[in-house]
Specification:
Blueprint lengths: L1 H10 L7 H8 L5 E8 L2 E8 L2 E4 L7 H10 L5 E6 L12 E4 L11 E4 L11 E5 L5 E8 L2 E8 L2 E4 L7 H11 L5 E6 L14 E3 L11 E3 L7 E5 L7 E5 L5 E4 L2 E5 L4 E6 L8 E6 L5 E5 L4 E6 L8 E11 L2 E6 L3 E6 L5 H56 L2 H10 L1
Parallel strand pairs: 17-24
Antiparallel strand pairs: 1-2, 2-3, 2-7, 4-7, 5-6, 8-9, 9-10, 9-14, 11-14, 12-13, 15-18, 16-17, 18-21, 19-20, 19-22, 22-23, 22-24
Helix pairs in contact: 1-2
Pfam families: ig, SRCR
Organism: Salmo salar
Main location: secreted
Amino acid sequence: MMRVAKVVCRQLDLSSTKLIECSTKSFSPESVRLVDGAGLCSGRVEVKSDQSWASVCEADFDRQDAEVVCGELGCGAPAALQGGLYGEGEGQTWDKEFQCKSKESLLLDCDTSDRENNTCLPGNAVGLTCSEPDDVRLVGGGSRCAGGVERYDQGEWRTVRAVDLDQEDVAAVVCRQLGCGSTVTVLPGNTTRGSLVSCSGSEYECSGSEPSLRECRRVFTDLCSGLTVICSDLLVQPDISLTDSMGGVSRGHQGPEVFRGYSFTITCSTQPQYPGGSFLLTFTGSNRTQTQPAVNHSAAFLFPAADDSHQGNYRCVYDKYVFSHNFSSESELLSLTVTASPLPAFIIRHVVVLLILLTAITTLYLYYKPTRRQKRVNRVSSMDLYVNAMEMVSLSSRAEAGPGEERAAQGTE
């Protein structure tokens, strides 16, 4: 048994000091796997059920579930998640919906729930691609999928170099390992990190089909030239969202619903990788498209009044020209349904307008009424002050006059 454990440890490229830990993990019951992919970290998701393997339906699996699977398999973060990506399984389909919180160690530790439909349509078996363990990175290119190639080796990040005839193959392996698609450009030299990174000790020779750089042949050398790689999945996936200003959007069973006659806005946004670029909003099933420049990494597409022609699937496509190439990235689909409003739209509009006017009139009335009352109070207060002042003057005059003068004044009165 120890001999088997040692072989497994060598395959995982672990040091001999971790043989016991590795052997314990090797003989733990396997509960999830990725099949028909390029290696351990990619393939169709299958779960072990009653000593047999079952495919997982795309509708029962999300990114948080994927993070748990990638972590359980010892891989990096999820890079791609899509139904039918690695074909369909021949066995049964898993009949539960996973509800992972991405903190679980094992997929079977996640909560599950029964799904409404016990069938999984053909083409919906979920495929998952995890990035390889984070021992390779691209730096200095503004994206995790562009820059100088570095590998973590012997406690520090070292520049990866390759002979001229082997650079394309090394770049292909690096892009695959990072889950960044295919190679777009390979440039000799790595000046993005200067002298901060050691590059002596290894040079890589790859055939181009290896799942990770650690599978390539290493040749020890003191030379240091490095290479810079640009991968096809340079841009992160943009987001798509639906908003409205009059309460005409609701959440239905099949996704968001918009009441007929109401305005709505579809917003495209992306992470701040590069300035500029543009967003293309596509409508599935027709040639209708709209394009807007990206302002603060987003763009809003306004639709004044929803009708039946707006029902369908929308997608945001972010385009950016960088590194002398055009790159694009697509969002998930937004399925929009147009339904009849509980009340005719024009009636609701009139009610809303009347409510706004009533609110404005009430506000003005409450504002000006105290003002007029305050003016009347001010006028009364001024009159009282005037009368009191005149009485004070009269009393003061009488006090200054003698008794005879006072009687004369009274007689005069």
